[in-house]
Amino acid sequence: MITHHPSLLRLRAPLPAGLRHGTSHALLFTAAAYSPSPPPLRLLPLRVAAGGSSLVGPDGGNRATPPQPGAAALDFARSNFLPLALIGGMTLGLLDPTLGCLAHKYSLSKYSTFGIFVISGLTLRTKELGAALQAWPAGLFGLGSILLFTPFLAQFLVQIQFFPREFITGLAMFCCMPTTLSSGVTLTQLAGGNSALALAMTVISNLLGIMFVPLSLAKYIGTGAGVSLPTKELFRSLVNTLLVPLILGKVARETSKGIAEFVDGNRQGFSVLSAVLLSLVPWIQVSRSRSLLLSVKPKAFAIIVTIGVLLHLALLAFNATTLQVLSCLKQKEESVLTRKEYARAVILVASQKTLPVLVAVVEQLGGALGESGLLVIPCVAAHINQIIIDSILVNWWRQRDQRSTSAK
Protein backbone atom coordinates (compact mmCIF):
# COMPACT_ATOMS: atom_id res chain seq x y z
CA MET A 1 0.00 0.00 0.00
CA ILE A 2 1.42 3.39 -0.99
CA THR A 3 0.58 6.57 0.88
CA HIS A 4 0.87 9.76 -1.15
CA HIS A 5 1.94 13.10 0.22
CA PRO A 6 2.69 16.37 -1.68
CA SER A 7 6.26 16.45 -0.35
CA LEU A 8 7.16 12.77 0.19
CA LEU A 9 6.46 9.30 -1.14
CA ARG A 10 6.81 6.66 1.60
CA LEU A 11 5.94 2.92 1.67
CA ARG A 12 4.30 1.25 4.58
CA ALA A 13 6.43 -1.25 6.60
CA PRO A 14 6.59 -4.69 4.81
CA LEU A 15 5.54 -7.97 6.36
CA PRO A 16 8.16 -10.19 8.05
CA ALA A 17 10.17 -12.42 5.75
CA GLY A 18 8.61 -15.62 7.03
CA LEU A 19 5.13 -14.50 6.17
CA ARG A 20 6.13 -13.03 2.82
CA HIS A 21 7.28 -16.41 1.44
CA GLY A 22 4.38 -18.51 2.70
CA THR A 23 2.48 -20.70 0.17
CA SER A 24 -0.97 -20.51 1.67
CA HIS A 25 -2.97 -17.43 0.72
CA ALA A 26 -5.22 -17.90 3.73
CA LEU A 27 -2.24 -18.03 6.02
CA LEU A 28 -0.88 -14.89 4.41
CA PHE A 29 -4.22 -13.10 4.81
CA THR A 30 -4.52 -14.20 8.45
CA ALA A 31 -0.98 -13.09 9.25
CA ALA A 32 -1.55 -9.75 7.62
CA ALA A 33 -4.80 -9.26 9.47
CA TYR A 34 -3.33 -9.97 12.91
CA SER A 35 0.05 -8.33 12.45
CA PRO A 36 0.58 -5.06 14.36
CA SER A 37 -0.36 -1.99 12.37
CA PRO A 38 2.54 -0.03 10.95
CA PRO A 39 3.55 3.18 12.67
CA PRO A 40 1.62 6.25 11.53
CA LEU A 41 3.07 8.18 8.66
CA ARG A 42 5.15 11.11 9.91
CA LEU A 43 5.02 14.08 7.56
CA LEU A 44 8.36 15.75 7.07
CA PRO A 45 8.48 19.27 5.65
CA LEU A 46 10.35 19.62 2.44
CA ARG A 47 12.64 22.63 2.36
CA VAL A 48 14.74 23.76 -0.48
CA ALA A 49 17.97 25.66 -0.12
CA ALA A 50 19.10 28.48 -2.35
CA GLY A 51 20.70 25.99 -4.71
CA GLY A 52 17.51 23.91 -4.99
CA SER A 53 18.58 20.84 -2.95
CA SER A 54 16.40 19.25 -0.29
CA LEU A 55 17.30 19.91 3.32
CA VAL A 56 15.91 16.54 4.48
CA GLY A 57 18.77 14.30 5.55
CA PRO A 58 19.21 10.69 4.43
CA ASP A 59 18.13 9.43 7.83
CA GLY A 60 14.85 11.34 7.63
CA GLY A 61 16.03 14.17 9.91
CA ASN A 62 16.40 17.82 9.07
CA ARG A 63 19.80 19.22 8.26
CA ALA A 64 20.77 22.68 9.44
CA THR A 65 19.67 25.38 7.02
CA PRO A 66 22.71 27.06 5.51
CA PRO A 67 22.53 30.86 5.75
CA GLN A 68 21.76 32.52 2.46
CA PRO A 69 24.36 35.03 1.27
CA GLY A 70 23.34 38.57 2.14
CA ALA A 71 20.21 37.51 4.06
CA ALA A 72 21.51 38.87 7.36
CA ALA A 73 22.52 42.17 5.76
CA LEU A 74 19.14 42.46 4.04
CA ASP A 75 17.31 41.77 7.31
CA PHE A 76 19.41 44.40 9.11
CA ALA A 77 18.72 46.97 6.37
CA ARG A 78 15.00 46.21 6.52
CA SER A 79 14.90 46.57 10.32
CA ASN A 80 16.94 49.79 10.35
CA PHE A 81 15.77 51.39 7.13
CA LEU A 82 15.06 54.87 8.46
CA PRO A 83 18.38 55.56 10.26
CA LEU A 84 20.29 54.08 7.31
CA ALA A 85 18.37 56.33 4.90
CA LEU A 86 19.09 59.38 7.04
CA ILE A 87 22.80 58.60 7.37
CA GLY A 88 22.97 57.87 3.65
CA GLY A 89 21.38 61.22 2.83
CA MET A 90 23.79 63.08 5.10
CA THR A 91 26.77 61.28 3.60
CA LEU A 92 25.62 62.07 0.08
CA GLY A 93 25.16 65.73 0.98
CA LEU A 94 28.68 65.95 2.39
CA LEU A 95 30.32 64.13 -0.50
CA ASP A 96 28.54 65.97 -3.30
CA PRO A 97 26.07 68.77 -2.46
CA THR A 98 25.13 69.43 -6.09
CA LEU A 99 21.98 67.34 -6.17
CA GLY A 100 20.91 68.51 -2.72
CA CYS A 101 21.28 72.17 -3.66
CA LEU A 102 19.35 71.51 -6.87
CA ALA A 103 16.60 69.83 -4.85
CA HIS A 104 16.46 72.88 -2.56
CA LYS A 105 16.25 75.18 -5.57
CA TYR A 106 13.09 73.42 -6.72
CA SER A 107 11.66 73.20 -3.15
CA LEU A 108 11.75 69.40 -3.04
CA SER A 109 11.57 69.42 0.77
CA LYS A 110 8.16 71.14 0.61
CA TYR A 111 6.87 68.50 -1.80
CA SER A 112 8.26 65.72 0.38
CA THR A 113 6.49 67.14 3.44
CA PHE A 114 3.30 67.43 1.38
CA GLY A 115 3.66 63.78 0.38
CA ILE A 116 4.25 62.67 3.96
CA PHE A 117 0.98 64.23 5.11
CA VAL A 118 -0.94 62.85 2.13
CA ILE A 119 0.25 59.41 3.26
CA SER A 120 -0.74 60.28 6.84
CA GLY A 121 -4.27 61.09 5.64
CA LEU A 122 -4.47 57.90 3.57
CA THR A 123 -3.41 55.71 6.49
CA LEU A 124 -5.44 57.56 9.14
CA ARG A 125 -8.32 55.40 10.33
CA THR A 126 -11.45 57.10 11.66
CA LYS A 127 -11.29 55.11 14.89
CA GLU A 128 -7.86 56.63 15.53
CA LEU A 129 -9.43 60.10 15.46
CA GLY A 130 -11.89 59.06 18.14
CA ALA A 131 -9.10 57.52 20.17
CA ALA A 132 -7.09 60.76 19.90
CA LEU A 133 -10.04 62.73 21.33
CA GLN A 134 -10.21 60.33 24.27
CA ALA A 135 -6.49 60.89 24.88
CA TRP A 136 -6.81 64.67 25.35
CA PRO A 137 -4.88 64.61 28.69
CA ALA A 138 -1.88 63.11 26.90
CA GLY A 139 -2.15 65.66 24.10
CA LEU A 140 -2.45 68.54 26.58
CA PHE A 141 0.69 67.41 28.38
CA GLY A 142 2.52 67.13 25.04
CA LEU A 143 1.58 70.68 24.06
CA GLY A 144 2.71 71.97 27.44
CA SER A 145 6.05 70.22 27.07
CA ILE A 146 6.55 71.58 23.54
CA LEU A 147 5.53 75.19 24.11
CA LEU A 148 6.38 75.80 27.78
CA PHE A 149 8.94 73.39 29.23
CA THR A 150 11.52 73.13 26.46
CA PRO A 151 11.66 76.90 25.80
CA PHE A 152 12.36 77.29 29.53
CA LEU A 153 15.58 75.28 29.03
CA ALA A 154 16.89 77.93 26.63
CA GLN A 155 17.78 80.29 29.48
CA PHE A 156 20.19 77.69 30.87
CA LEU A 157 21.82 77.02 27.51
CA VAL A 158 22.66 80.69 26.92
CA GLN A 159 24.70 80.67 30.14
CA ILE A 160 27.26 78.32 28.55
CA GLN A 161 30.43 80.09 27.42
CA PHE A 162 31.22 78.88 23.91
CA PHE A 163 32.97 80.03 20.76
CA PRO A 164 31.55 80.74 18.28
CA ARG A 165 28.78 82.25 20.37
CA GLU A 166 26.20 81.70 17.63
CA PHE A 167 26.36 77.94 18.17
CA ILE A 168 24.92 78.14 21.68
CA THR A 169 22.48 80.90 20.72
CA GLY A 170 21.21 78.83 17.78
CA LEU A 171 20.70 75.76 19.97
CA ALA A 172 18.84 77.87 22.55
CA MET A 173 16.60 79.21 19.77
CA PHE A 174 16.00 75.63 18.66
CA CYS A 175 14.52 74.88 22.11
CA CYS A 176 11.87 77.58 21.55
CA MET A 177 10.54 76.02 18.34
CA PRO A 178 7.39 73.87 18.01
CA THR A 179 7.59 70.20 17.09
CA THR A 180 8.70 68.82 13.73
CA LEU A 181 6.26 69.03 10.84
CA SER A 182 6.62 65.46 9.59
CA SER A 183 9.19 63.26 11.33
CA GLY A 184 7.28 62.99 14.62
CA VAL A 185 4.15 61.75 12.82
CA THR A 186 6.12 59.36 10.60
CA LEU A 187 8.04 57.86 13.52
CA THR A 188 4.84 57.53 15.55
CA GLN A 189 3.29 55.49 12.73
CA LEU A 190 6.38 53.27 12.54
CA ALA A 191 6.35 52.77 16.31
CA GLY A 192 2.69 51.68 16.36
CA GLY A 193 1.62 54.85 18.17
CA ASN A 194 -1.59 56.79 17.65
CA SER A 195 -0.87 58.85 14.54
CA ALA A 196 -4.02 60.95 14.99
CA LEU A 197 -2.79 62.17 18.37
CA ALA A 198 0.64 62.88 16.87
CA LEU A 199 -0.99 64.85 14.03
CA ALA A 200 -3.12 66.86 16.44
CA MET A 201 -0.13 67.84 18.58
CA THR A 202 1.89 68.70 15.46
CA VAL A 203 -0.75 70.95 13.93
CA ILE A 204 -1.82 72.67 17.17
CA SER A 205 1.73 73.26 18.46
CA ASN A 206 2.81 74.80 15.15
CA LEU A 207 -0.25 77.03 14.97
CA LEU A 208 0.16 78.15 18.59
CA GLY A 209 3.90 78.50 17.94
CA ILE A 210 3.17 81.54 15.81
CA MET A 211 2.29 83.29 19.07
CA PHE A 212 4.51 81.42 21.54
CA VAL A 213 7.81 81.42 19.63
CA PRO A 214 8.29 85.23 19.53
CA LEU A 215 7.43 85.48 23.22
CA SER A 216 9.86 82.69 24.18
CA LEU A 217 12.69 84.10 22.07
CA ALA A 218 12.20 87.60 23.43
CA LYS A 219 12.01 86.41 27.05
CA TYR A 220 14.83 83.84 27.16
CA ILE A 221 17.23 84.91 24.40
CA GLY A 222 16.64 88.10 22.47
CA THR A 223 15.40 90.63 24.98
CA GLY A 224 15.40 93.98 23.22
CA ALA A 225 16.42 92.44 19.88
CA GLY A 226 13.04 93.05 18.27
CA VAL A 227 12.25 89.39 17.55
CA SER A 228 9.26 88.96 15.23
CA LEU A 229 7.76 86.25 13.06
CA PRO A 230 6.18 86.46 9.59
CA THR A 231 2.81 85.42 11.01
CA LYS A 232 0.75 85.38 7.83
CA GLU A 233 3.41 83.59 5.79
CA LEU A 234 4.00 80.93 8.46
CA PHE A 235 0.28 80.35 8.93
CA ARG A 236 -0.26 79.95 5.19
CA SER A 237 2.74 77.61 4.95
CA LEU A 238 1.46 75.42 7.79
CA VAL A 239 -2.00 75.18 6.25
CA ASN A 240 -0.59 74.29 2.81
CA THR A 241 1.97 71.75 4.03
CA LEU A 242 0.00 70.12 6.87
CA LEU A 243 -3.75 70.53 6.73
CA VAL A 244 -4.40 70.49 2.97
CA PRO A 245 -2.49 67.25 2.16
CA LEU A 246 -3.84 65.59 5.31
CA ILE A 247 -7.42 66.41 4.32
CA LEU A 248 -6.81 65.28 0.72
CA GLY A 249 -5.48 61.92 1.87
CA LYS A 250 -8.30 61.41 4.37
CA VAL A 251 -11.00 62.35 1.82
CA ALA A 252 -9.50 59.94 -0.73
CA ARG A 253 -9.56 57.16 1.86
CA GLU A 254 -13.17 57.79 2.91
CA THR A 255 -14.61 58.24 -0.60
CA SER A 256 -13.01 55.18 -2.19
CA LYS A 257 -13.21 51.76 -0.58
CA GLY A 258 -10.66 50.46 -3.08
CA ILE A 259 -8.09 53.04 -2.02
CA ALA A 260 -8.69 52.29 1.67
CA GLU A 261 -8.26 48.54 1.13
CA PHE A 262 -5.13 49.07 -0.97
CA VAL A 263 -3.57 51.33 1.67
CA ASP A 264 -4.45 48.96 4.53
CA GLY A 265 -2.98 46.05 2.60
CA ASN A 266 0.27 47.90 1.93
CA ARG A 267 0.82 49.86 5.14
CA GLN A 268 4.43 48.70 5.41
CA GLY A 269 5.17 49.97 1.91
CA PHE A 270 3.62 53.35 2.70
CA SER A 271 5.71 53.52 5.88
CA VAL A 272 8.86 52.93 3.84
CA LEU A 273 7.80 55.65 1.39
CA SER A 274 7.27 58.07 4.28
CA ALA A 275 10.75 57.25 5.59
CA VAL A 276 12.27 57.93 2.16
CA LEU A 277 10.49 61.28 1.92
CA LEU A 278 11.60 62.14 5.44
CA SER A 279 15.25 61.39 4.66
CA LEU A 280 15.20 64.02 1.90
CA VAL A 281 15.03 66.85 4.48
CA PRO A 282 18.43 66.27 6.20
CA TRP A 283 20.00 65.48 2.80
CA ILE A 284 18.97 68.90 1.49
CA GLN A 285 19.93 70.70 4.71
CA VAL A 286 23.41 69.14 4.82
CA SER A 287 23.94 69.90 1.12
CA ARG A 288 23.01 73.55 1.65
CA SER A 289 25.23 73.96 4.74
CA ARG A 290 28.20 71.90 3.53
CA SER A 291 30.59 74.83 3.05
CA LEU A 292 29.79 76.23 6.49
CA LEU A 293 30.07 72.80 8.09
CA LEU A 294 33.52 72.27 6.61
CA SER A 295 34.67 75.73 7.76
CA VAL A 296 33.93 75.04 11.43
CA LYS A 297 36.65 73.62 13.65
CA PRO A 298 35.98 69.90 14.21
CA LYS A 299 36.38 70.17 17.99
CA ALA A 300 33.82 72.96 18.34
CA PHE A 301 31.42 71.18 16.03
CA ALA A 302 31.80 67.90 17.94
CA ILE A 303 31.11 69.64 21.26
CA ILE A 304 27.97 71.40 20.03
CA VAL A 305 26.70 68.18 18.46
CA THR A 306 27.23 66.40 21.79
CA ILE A 307 25.32 69.13 23.62
CA GLY A 308 22.47 68.77 21.12
CA VAL A 309 22.37 65.00 21.59
CA LEU A 310 22.33 65.34 25.40
CA LEU A 311 19.56 67.92 25.13
CA HIS A 312 17.38 65.59 23.08
CA LEU A 313 18.05 62.65 25.40
CA ALA A 314 17.06 64.88 28.32
CA LEU A 315 13.76 65.75 26.60
CA LEU A 316 13.03 62.07 25.93
CA ALA A 317 13.77 61.18 29.56
CA PHE A 318 11.69 64.08 30.89
CA ASN A 319 8.63 63.28 28.78
CA ALA A 320 8.78 59.53 29.45
CA THR A 321 9.31 59.98 33.21
CA THR A 322 6.63 62.66 33.60
CA LEU A 323 4.09 60.53 31.73
CA GLN A 324 4.85 57.64 34.06
CA VAL A 325 4.49 59.82 37.17
CA LEU A 326 1.22 61.36 35.98
CA SER A 327 -0.22 57.94 35.14
CA CYS A 328 0.54 56.71 38.66
CA LEU A 329 -1.56 59.53 40.15
CA LYS A 330 -4.69 58.01 38.62
CA GLN A 331 -4.99 54.75 40.52
CA LYS A 332 -8.72 53.93 40.35
CA GLU A 333 -8.83 53.33 36.61
CA GLU A 334 -6.38 52.88 33.80
CA SER A 335 -5.00 56.20 32.61
CA VAL A 336 -4.68 56.99 28.91
CA LEU A 337 -1.13 58.03 29.69
CA THR A 338 -0.17 54.41 30.34
CA ARG A 339 -1.41 53.11 26.99
CA LYS A 340 1.41 52.34 24.63
CA GLU A 341 0.01 54.00 21.53
CA TYR A 342 -0.58 57.32 23.31
CA ALA A 343 2.62 57.36 25.34
CA ARG A 344 4.79 56.72 22.29
CA ALA A 345 3.09 59.49 20.31
CA VAL A 346 3.65 62.01 23.11
CA ILE A 347 7.26 60.98 23.81
CA LEU A 348 8.27 61.24 20.16
CA VAL A 349 6.38 64.39 19.16
CA ALA A 350 7.00 66.36 22.36
CA SER A 351 10.76 65.69 22.27
CA GLN A 352 11.41 66.99 18.74
CA LYS A 353 11.93 70.51 17.40
CA THR A 354 11.34 71.79 13.90
CA LEU A 355 14.05 73.25 11.67
CA PRO A 356 12.05 75.10 8.94
CA VAL A 357 10.41 77.45 11.45
CA LEU A 358 13.80 78.23 12.98
CA VAL A 359 15.24 79.03 9.55
CA ALA A 360 12.33 81.42 8.91
CA VAL A 361 12.92 83.10 12.27
CA VAL A 362 16.67 83.48 11.65
CA GLU A 363 16.00 85.08 8.28
CA GLN A 364 13.61 87.57 9.90
CA LEU A 365 16.15 88.51 12.59
CA GLY A 366 18.54 89.90 9.99
CA GLY A 367 21.67 89.15 12.06
CA ALA A 368 20.33 90.62 15.34
CA LEU A 369 21.52 87.57 17.30
CA GLY A 370 24.61 86.73 15.23
CA GLU A 371 25.70 85.31 11.89
CA SER A 372 22.72 83.52 10.34
CA GLY A 373 24.71 80.58 8.96
CA LEU A 374 26.40 79.89 12.31
CA LEU A 375 23.05 80.06 14.09
CA VAL A 376 21.57 77.42 11.79
CA ILE A 377 24.49 74.92 11.74
CA PRO A 378 24.00 73.44 15.27
CA CYS A 379 20.25 73.28 14.64
CA VAL A 380 20.74 71.31 11.42
CA ALA A 381 22.90 68.84 13.37
CA ALA A 382 20.38 68.69 16.24
CA HIS A 383 17.48 68.18 13.82
CA ILE A 384 19.22 65.26 12.11
CA ASN A 385 20.45 63.72 15.36
CA GLN A 386 17.00 63.77 16.96
CA ILE A 387 15.55 61.88 13.99
CA ILE A 388 18.37 59.30 14.08
CA ILE A 389 18.07 58.82 17.86
CA ASP A 390 14.29 58.51 17.69
CA SER A 391 14.44 56.10 14.75
CA ILE A 392 16.75 53.87 16.83
CA LEU A 393 14.26 54.12 19.70
CA VAL A 394 11.40 53.20 17.35
CA ASN A 395 13.32 50.18 16.07
CA TRP A 396 13.90 49.05 19.66
CA TRP A 397 10.20 49.42 20.43
CA ARG A 398 9.24 47.42 17.32
CA GLN A 399 11.68 44.62 18.11
CA ARG A 400 10.38 44.46 21.67
CA ASP A 401 6.80 44.24 20.37
CA GLN A 402 7.80 41.43 18.02
CA ARG A 403 9.41 39.49 20.85
CA SER A 404 6.33 40.03 22.99
CA THR A 405 4.06 38.81 20.19
CA SER A 406 6.24 35.75 19.57
CA ALA A 407 6.21 34.88 23.27
CA LYS A 408 2.40 34.79 23.17
Automatic annotation (TrEMBL):
<comment type="function">
    <text>May function as sodium-coupled metabolite transporter across the chloroplast envelope.</text>
</comment>
<dbReference type="Pfam" id="PF13593">
    <property type="entry name" value="SBF_like"/>
</dbReference>
<keyword id="KW-1133">Transmembrane helix</keyword>
<dbReference type="InterPro" id="IPR038770">
    <property type="entry name" value="Na+/solute_symporter_sf"/>
</dbReference>
<keyword id="KW-0812">Transmembrane</keyword>
<comment type="similarity">
    <text>Belongs to the bile acid:sodium symporter (BASS) (TC 2.A.28) family.</text>
</comment>
<dbReference type="InterPro" id="IPR016833">
    <property type="entry name" value="Put_Na-Bile_cotransptr"/>
</dbReference>
<keyword id="KW-0813">Transport</keyword>
<feature type="transmembrane region" description="Helical">
    <location>
        <begin position="197"/>
        <end position="222"/>
    </location>
</feature>
<dbReference type="GO" id="GO:0009941">
    <property type="term" value="C:chloroplast envelope"/>
</dbReference>
<feature type="transmembrane region" description="Helical">
    <location>
        <begin position="136"/>
        <end position="158"/>
    </location>
</feature>
<keyword id="KW-0809">Transit peptide</keyword>
<protein>
    <recommendedName>
        <fullName>Probable sodium/metabolite cotransporter BASS4, chloroplastic</fullName>
    </recommendedName>
</protein>
<dbReference type="GO" id="GO:0016020">
    <property type="term" value="C:membrane"/>
</dbReference>
<feature type="transmembrane region" description="Helical">
    <location>
        <begin position="170"/>
        <end position="191"/>
    </location>
</feature>
<feature type="transmembrane region" description="Helical">
    <location>
        <begin position="300"/>
        <end position="318"/>
    </location>
</feature>
<keyword id="KW-0150">Chloroplast</keyword>
<keyword id="KW-0472">Membrane</keyword>
<feature type="transmembrane region" description="Helical">
    <location>
        <begin position="272"/>
        <end position="288"/>
    </location>
</feature>
<keyword id="KW-0934">Plastid</keyword>
